[in-house]
Design brief:
alpha+beta; eight-stranded mixed β-sheet; globular
Length: about 650
């Protein structure tokens, strides 16, 4: 069998990724400057009051959604039967749930990002499968890139259909293509009429099995460039090969989509030809914000669950919540939920601002909330113990409250992979965080310039760093600066000092490793995580200050939780800085290479070949549990077995 996969060198893959990224920065970008040692506090403080950004139509719609979820959605049934009931989908269509961000002139609700994130948060308290259905359609499906890059004719043709209930999907991933689009091999062949013929197969296409319209990334056979195409699922040659099933999200409609000589009209090219990856990246800048909001909803649900359980469950003469080991988990869940809430909320509010470049805030919100959120859900399961691990329907059968924490755990796990895995997010953030340095001095390190050209540019680079670098050491980051934050001012001062230290540290590593720094992923990841923590601390303090300014009844309690979150975050930051300088990265890498080379196969001795057993056995689709035999059936079985043995 011939190998029709696209092969690309590391340099080619990097060049394609670099050409797809946004080269220019907007006027305002808080996180990018944070990595450069500049705390531009005025971009997030005063923290915008979200109550002023959630309009009355959105409030009414959210309340209707809450009532619908409360009374008509059975999440355990969806998980058990691996299907969202048609009446649930139909009701969502009638509510306009698939047209939340579509402008009113096309029939949609025209909700802003803050309102949309609040809706995703509400869904995050209930059901992951519904989240996948609605967010995959509206965050990365056809409507969002169509709004940003589509022609007016395309908008007039498709946006009203989405507002009326048509579901969409996004098709990029392939069997051999995950985070490396340079290997993409779905092809677009140009015809004499100017139309295109698509051939290929897409994997893990969320909503692909129920979508009416999808956006497909394909490579031109003549130029090798990648473009985005709007494809209707009922066109000849489009085939849903298989619906896929996963650890969680039982009702997700995710599948393999095949294209065999699918004719796509020229007018269905989305955006400029060859700009498909840039369209995908720009779409994801705000599209990623759905997942952080979902994590907040899960966190708020976890706080309620552990509060109720740990108050009622008595062990060793007192509620389990009063035992220190459990109490610490409860406190961390509470503090981290407030942290996730602030990160998600401020990112959504900034996304609605004009002239604000949200790419790093969105990426960090996605990374931070999914990583912290996963630990938080795991802690909630631990607090409930065996009842956290037991399925909700089993709990109900025993007469206990059907708390679906184990389903929440399974559903939440994908968030660290969806829309850019945590590792890819860290690589993306690291690249954007050092962009200023690369624009200034990148060609001196790894460019193709001649020696003379490099020497000509060297004075400007040295002069710029001669001003920039000392300023990363100078500056007052102690009392009484930021005293307007009261007892929380110490945390803002810590952020300011740590931001400058982070900028210096990254610069030192760039000097030491040069172009090789891109391969020091463990080192870069720690720097990214420090930046994420500093962003989260700033957002938390600013939000607590906003609640006090508003006169919110919970303002005092919020300040206490904000203080706890920042204390925990500061400990993580100090550990990350320490690990940048002192770590076992080289030994870990060497050991991993030895494992890949087969030098540690001795450790696998005695392993049952589970994959081989699975290939020989039944699939999850065809396997059904055998009914428990009655006494007569058991007797007949035993007689038969004895006869067979004797025979």
């Amino acid at each position: 069998m011939s190998d029709n996969r696209t092969h690309a060198t590391e340099a080619e893959a990097r060049q394609l990724a670099e050409s797809a990224r946004q080269q220019e920065w907007g006027d305002h970008t808080f996180v990018r400057d944070l990595f450069l040692g500049d705390l531009r506090l005025g971009l997030v403080h005063p923290y915008p009051d979200p109550e002023e950004h959630i309009r009355e139509p959105a409030r009414a719609w959210i309340e209707e959604l809450r009532e619908f979820l409360r009374t008509e959605v059975d999440s355990e049934q969806i998980d058990r039967e691996r299907k969202i009931p048609p009446y649930v989908v139909d009701r969502l269509r009638r509510m306009g749930a698939v047209g939340l961000k579509i402008p009113r002139e096309y029939g949609g609700h025209d909700f802003n990002q803050a309102e949309y994130s609040k809706i995703m948060e509400v869904l995050g308290t209930v059901d992951g499968s519904l989240i996948a259905l609605l967010s995959a359609h509206q965050s990365i499906g056809v409507p969002q890139p169509l709004k940003l890059f589509g022609t007016e004719e395309q908008k007039q043709r498709y946006l009203p259909r989405f507002a009326a209930g048509a579901i969409s999907a996004f098709a990029l991933t392939e069997d051999d293509v995950g985070s490396d689009p340079a290997r993409l091999h779905t092809s677009a062949e140009r015809t004499e009429s100017g139309d295109f013929i698509l051939n290929g197969e897409k994997l893990w296409c969320t909503n692909g099995t129920v979508a009416e319209i999808i956006v497909v990334m394909a490579r031109h056979t003549d130029s090798g460039k990648i473009s985005a195409f709007i494809v209707e699922m009922d066109w000849p040659g489009v085939e849903v090969v298989q619906r896929l099933h996963f650890m969680g999200l039982g009702g997700i409609e995710n599948g393999i989509i095949r294209f065999r000589n699918v004719r796509v009209p020229r007018e269905n090219l989305l955006g400029q030809e060859g700009r498909g990856l840039k369209i995908a990246l720009v779409t994801l800048n705000t599209g990623r914000l759905a997942i952080p909001a979902v994590a907040v909803g899960s966190g708020k649900a976890a706080v309620r669950i552990v509060r109720e359980w740990a108050s009622e469950r008595v062990q060793w003469g007192q509620p389990v919540g009063k035992h220190e080991a459990v109490a610490q988990m409860i406190a961390e869940i509470t503090a981290n939920t407030f942290g996730m809430d602030a990160v998600s909320e401020i990112s959504a509010l900034l996304a609605d601002r004009e002239g604000y470049d949200i790419r790093l805030e969105a990426a960090i919100a996605k990374l931070f909330n999914t990583e912290i959120g996963w630990l938080m859900v795991d802690q909630a399961v631990q607090v409930r113990g065996g009842r956290g691990y037991e399925r909700a329907d089993s709990l109900a059968d025993r007469g206990e409250d059907p708390v679906g924490l184990e389903r929440m755990l399974r559903d939440f796990r994908i968030n660290r992979i969806f829309e850019g895995s945590s590792e890819i997010m860290r690589l993306f953030i690291a690249r954007e965080a050092v962009d200023w340095h690369l624009q200034l001095a990148g060609e001196l390190v790894e460019g193709d310039l001649s020696l003379g050209a490099k020497l000509a540019r060297l004075p400007r680079v040295l002069l710029t760093y001669a001003v920039w670098y000392p300023s990363r050491w100078l500056g007052w980051g102690w009392w009484p600066r930021y005293s307007e934050f009261g007892e929380l001012a110490t945390h803002v001062r810590f952020v300011q000092r740590s931001s400058r230290k982070l900028a210096r540290t990254l610069f030192h590593k760039m000097l030491r490793y040069g172009a090789r720094l891109q391969r020091k992923q463990a080192l870069l990841f720690r720097g990214v995580d420090i930046g994420a923590e500093l962003f989260a601390m700033t957002a938390v303090v600013a939000k607590a200050q906003m609640l006090a300014r508003r006169g919110d009844p919970a303002a005092l309690q919020a300040r206490k939780v904000a203080d706890l979150f920042c204390r925990l975050s500061r400990r993580r930051v100090r550990n990350l800085f320490r690990d940048i300088s002192s770590n076992e990265d080289a030994r870990l890498y060497r050991t991993a290479r030895e494992v890949l080379d087969g030098q540690h196969r001795w450790l696998e001795e005695g392993v049952v070949e589970l994959q081989e057993l699975a290939r020989r056995g039944s699939t999850a689709e065809s396997w059904q549990p055998a009914e428990t035999p009655g006494p007569e059936e058991r007797l007949e079985s035993e007689i038969g077995a004895t006869t067979a043995d004797v025979g």
